[in-house]
Design a protein that fits this description.
Blueprint: H1 11-14, E1 19-21, E2 25-26, E3 29-35, H2 42-48, E4 52-57, H3 65-70, H4 87-90, E5 93-101, E6 110-112, E7 119-120, H5 121-127, E8 136-141, E9 148-154, E10 160-165, E11 171-180, E12 189-192, E13 200-202, E14 207-209, E15 212-213, E16 218-223, E17 227-234, E18 242-247, E19 253-258, E20 263-270, E21 276-278, E22 283-288, E23 309-313, E24 324-327, E25 330-337, E26 358-365, E27 372-378, E28 381-388, E29 398-406, E30 416-420, E31 422-430, E32 433-441, E33 447-452, E34 466-470, E35 481-485, E36 503-511, H6 512-516, E37 520-525, E38 529-531, E39 556-564, E40 566-573, H7 576-581, E41 585-589, E42 595-598, E43 605-611, E44 614-620, E45 626-635, E46 638-647, E47 651-656, E48 659-666, E49 672-677, E50 682-683, E51 689-690, E52 703-705, E53 717-720, E54 725-730, E55 738-743, E56 750-754, E57 760-765, E58 774-781, E59 783-789, H8 794-797, E60 799-802, E61 805-816, E62 823-834, E63 840-843, H9 848-852, E64 863-867, E65 873-874, E66 880-886, E67 891-896
Parallel strand pairs: 1-9, 2-9, 3-10, 11-19, 20-27, 28-35, 36-42, 43-47, 46-53, 48-56, 57-63
Antiparallel strand pairs: 3-6, 3-7, 4-5, 4-8, 5-6, 8-9, 11-16, 12-15, 12-17, 13-14, 17-18, 20-21, 20-24, 22-23, 22-25, 25-26, 28-32, 29-30, 29-33, 31-32, 33-34, 36-39, 37-38, 37-40, 40-41, 43-44, 45-46, 48-53, 49-52, 49-54, 50-51, 54-55, 55-59, 57-60, 58-59, 58-61, 61-62, 62-67, 64-65, 64-66, ...
């Protein structure tokens, strides 16, 4: 969680000092020379920094540190990104190391390349996909420098140029030492050396951005007169974070955070009577929560303001049991999560001020050698008396709650609704009026909400009467007592609450499964123009289930909605399509008793399907002719398949899926796999139906039968009695086709016998060459119940491994005519026999010359009919795809441009 501390400086000003940009230069062979800080020997520089990294890019966008901040990237990243934007696709980066050299000839250390061809412009341009006439940009970053060095290299014919940077010459060394605990021992910590650029614990993974381990001294090179704001986070369950600043001097400065000067702090929450109450539960931690550069309230991007940094949970407690910690003097932020307190204040309410059950407070820690007591927050109960005229009939159902809206750093999201504690003090009926007194915690900017809720033990599940009232007139409103009427309550559209004399309850009686399947009650009329979004998906605690076999097996929920008088229309729907097709119901609400609106069985269909002992429920508000139930499942060595069209009628429907066995028998010649597929029927251009089995793809759910196994186990293959399916069997060979056995609906078991003979290699040709492909294909073995479906490898080599026997093969060969460029479709139909141990070749066009070219004295084929792709007959070919039927019986697909 975070506390608000808006920086007065804008992001550009905050990050202004980070970049040092050189003038544009021209080079082919590039020598880079970066002078080290003067007065620092090479050995110290090697220990502090070592080698540097230089990154080249085809874009100078990575000069802009605000891009790193906005995307919560560590400044040490090779590049920035914009969350997968298109820019990421053409921004290219290339990084190399710059070696530290001990002497430049004048006794000064420097970084750079000693080999003049190491950085060659043409090579760098290729590495970053730069254009020939565009510059290359570079960036040198180190967490040890308070400046980022940038520059650009322009293309030129110059043979060699040296890039000489002197920005670091006047930098001075600041050494951050590991902190010292209360006993004088070094303690591991994390350091944020420069709070100008932010510090963040990014995301729930806890990745720390722009922070570094402080288990050893960490050097930061800055400039005389610079102010360094830093943060030290000890890895300790008793030491608080410490944020501080120093001014850089002309000499090396050592910074040691010394907790021997820490003060024992005891934390309390003050009650409404001003008493400090010990915090005896919850979690206490120190935190650094400042709004950081990169925050974008208009886009919701947190940037370096995302999460920021929270320390460890503290373990110490004071003698009275309250939480304690050790902190250095100054301003410090602490957070309490889900605390409990010891208090005698009858009006005490926990002053949560941040989402997630947190209390955040900033306190001043004085210098002291004695323990100090600090209040992190104070309870501020507001007494609210609400008089609702004519509301006495609803006294048992009207409820009050409180909430507020918080923004980062009090929450992770913008305008987050947060619950505020409140409790009812009294409820009285005076005549026909209802008077309720409520205490509301007022540490934030609270809203009092009025809701109607019916008993959780009844059939009713919700109400839509929901209005709110903002208690404070302005921030800092000093009032603690408020008097309200129904006129003070309004909704999100600023519609005020009608008088209770004009409100009446309406009970909507709807099957429970309407809500369980994701539907909502959409109500139009005087009250609302859209979804009733306040309704839960189902009655809390509802254990009502379907009662198969009873007179009314469908359980119902009752939604009680208090509505003003007027005209209404309602519908149960899941999406816009169902809104248009489902039955609508209209009613008029007048000055009457409770009105009941019931969704009648004629208005919907509910289907219960029991399969393998599990119920599946389907709801239709526009009753279809049938529901198609499908299941393909391999479990515990059993293959189950169901594909049934279950007829629907209005009201309750049910189907219990029953099973039959399909047993496979084979010889020991081959192993095989088997699976189920739904039969597929296609619609031709003229509206007729046809089948085609041009290739197969084995799914994940298949059953395996080893080579030496001769039959599947009992009940290993199960198909529902109402299903029609193809049982596919494949031996696994490279050119082995699959066999599809059609199984029709039946209650009887069936046995399929396969692979009783050794297969024979059969090659296929078309007009003496490789088979080009099929627009349609139907190939059968022995009878029409056994289909042969080619392996995808068939289309590479035009061969299959087939069992001996009789085959029929028909379809449409498809190819592009080399002479005309037209897509030609040629029907064919053949029958052939395969003999054992006799490989053979089958020609799909037995008389190629009869099809390839017409006799000289015969008339050329002409167009007999022309069709559009949707099957409409047209008089002449149109732009796009056309199906042409020729007088010789062939069919062509022609594209007209």
């Amino acid at each position: 969680m975070k506390i608000a501390n808006h920086l007065s400086r804008v992001l550009a000003a905050t990050l202004l000092g980070l970049g040092c940009h050189t003038a544009a230069l021209h080079a082919q062979n590039i020598m880079l020379h970066l002078d080290a800080p003067q007065g620092i020997d090479a050995q110290t520089l090697a220990a502090d920094i070592g080698t540097l990294k230089i990154t080249f890019s085809n874009s100078k966008d990575f000069f802009d540190t605000s891009l790193y901040a906005a995307n919560t990237l560590d400044l040490g990243s090779d590049y920035y990104n914009e969350g997968g934007s298109s820019k990421d696709k053409y921004h290219k980066y290339y990084s190399r190391e710059l070696t530290l050299n001990a002497d430049d000839g004048n006794g000064n250390a420097w970084w750079g390349n000693t080999n003049k061809i190491e950085f060659k412009f043409d090579n760098l341009r290729r590495y970053v996909s730069g254009r020939t006439d565009q510059p290359i940009y570079y960036r040198i970053y180190s967490p040890h420098f308070s400046r980022i060095i940038t520059g650009q290299i322009d293309p030129t014919d110059a043979e060699e140029v040296t890039l000489h940077h002197t920005e670091l010459v006047q930098a001075r060394r600041v050494a951050f030492m590991p902190p010292v605990d209360r006993d004088g021992n070094a303690v591991p910590a994390i350091l944020a050396p420069d709070l100008r650029i932010g510090t963040a614990r990014y995301g729930f993974s806890g990745a720390s951005v722009n922070m570094h381990d402080l288990t050893e001294p960490f050097a930061r090179y800055a400039y005389k007169g610079d102010t360094l704001r830093y943060l030290v986070a000890p890895n300790s369950d008793e030491l608080a974070l410490h944020a501080d600043s120093i001014v850089v001097t002309d000499t090396t400065t050592c910074v040691t955070t010394d907790y021997r000067k820490a003060v024992e702090c005891r934390f309390y929450i003050t009650d409404s009577q001003g008493q400090l109450c010990p915090v005896t539960n919850g979690q206490l931690a120190s935190a650094y929560y400042k709004l950081q550069p990169g925050f974008k309230s208009d886009t919701g991007s947190r940037g370096y303001g995302d999460y920021n940094f929270g320390g460890n949970i503290f373990e110490p407690t004071a003698p009275d049991g309250t939480h304690a910690a050790y902190a250095l003097p100054g301003r410090q932020t602490f957070q309490l999560r889900m605390p409990t307190v010891q208090t005698t204040d009858p009006e005490f309410l926990m002053p949560y001020n941040a989402d997630g059950g947190y209390i955040l407070g900033e306190v001043t820690i004085p210098a002291s050698t004695e323990p100090v007591s600090l209040s992190i927050a104070q309870s501020k109960p507001l007494r609210v008396t609400t008089t609702l005229a004519d509301a006495a009939p609803y006294a048992d159902h009207l409820q009050f709650s409180a909430h507020t809206y918080v923004n980062p750093p009090y929450s992770w999201a913008e305008n987050k609704k947060m619950t505020v504690l409140c409790k009812e003090v009294s409820r009285q009926i005076k005549g026909n009026d209802l008077v309720v007194t409520t205490l509301v915690e007022g540490s934030t900017y609270p809203y009092l909400a009025l809701n109607a809720q019916y008993g959780a033990q009844s059939d009713t599940i919700a109400s839509v009467l929901s209005k709110q009232c903002c208690l404070y007139s302005y921030p800092g409103d000093p009032r603690t007592e408020f008097s309200l009427t129904y006129k003070n309550f309004y909704d999100g559209d600023l519609k005020t609450l009608p008088a209770f004399s004009q409100l009446h309850p309406v009970k909507f009686v709807v099957p429970c499964h309407q809500f369980q399947t994701g539907r909502v009650l959409n109500l139009f009329g005087t009250y609302n123009q859209g979804y009733i979004s306040d309704l839960p998906s189902h009655h809390n605690g509802c254990a009502k289930q379907l009662q198969p076999g009873s007179a009314d097996p469908i359980p119902y929920d009752t939604i009680t909605i208090i509505l003003p008088e007027g005209e209404y229309d309602w519908v149960m729907q899941k999406d816009l399509d169902e809104y248009n097709s489902a039955p609508h119901h209209a009613f008029t609400l007048a000055n009457t008793d409770t009105l009941v609106q019931r969704l009648q069985p004629t208005d919907f269909a509910l289907l219960r399907v029991n399969c393998l002992g599990t119920d599946s429920i389907y709801v239709y508000n526009n009753v279809l002719e049938y529901h198609r139930y499908r299941l393909s499942k391999l479990t515990k060595g059993r293959l189950y398949y169901a594909d049934e069209e279950i007829p629907l009628r209005p009201g309750y429907n049910e189907r219990i899926i029953t099973w039959r066995e399909a047993k496979l028998q084979k010889d020991t010649l081959y192993s095989l796999s088997c699976w189920f597929e739904a039969p597929i029927t296609y619609v031709d251009e003229d509206g007729s139906y046809y089948t085609s089995y041009g290739r197969f793809d084995r799914p994940y759910n298949y059953l395996w039968l080893e080579k030496l196994e001769t039959a599947t186990a009992d009940s290993a293959i199960c198909i529902s009695t109402g299903s029609r399916a193809n049982l596919a069997v494949w031996s696994g060979g490279t050119f082995a086709p699959a066999r599809f056995f059609t199984i029709s609906p039946s209650e009887a078991d069936t046995t399929v016998t396969v692979y009783t003979q050794k297969t024979v290699r059969v090659n296929f040709s078309y007009k003496g060459g490789r088979v080009p492909g099929f627009e349609r294909l139907n190939m059968c073995y022995g009878n029409e119940q056994t289909r042969i479906v080619p392996n995808p490898n068939f289309y590479r080599r035009s061969r299959m491994d087939l069992e001996p026997g009789h085959y029929t093969m028909s379809g449409v060969v498809a190819y592009e005519d080399d002479a005309t460029g037209e897509y030609v479709l040629t029907p064919f139909s053949i029958a052939f026999d395969v003999e054992a141990n006799h490989p053979t070749t089958i020609e799909l066009c037995p008389d190629p010359t009869a099809v390839a070219a017409a006799p000289a004295n015969s008339a050329p084929a002409k167009t007999a009919a022309c069709y559009a792709p949707d099957g409409r007959r047209i008089s002449t070919p149109q732009s796009g795809l056309n199906i042409i039927k020729m007088t010789d019986g062939t069919v062509r697909k022609v594209i007209v441009k």
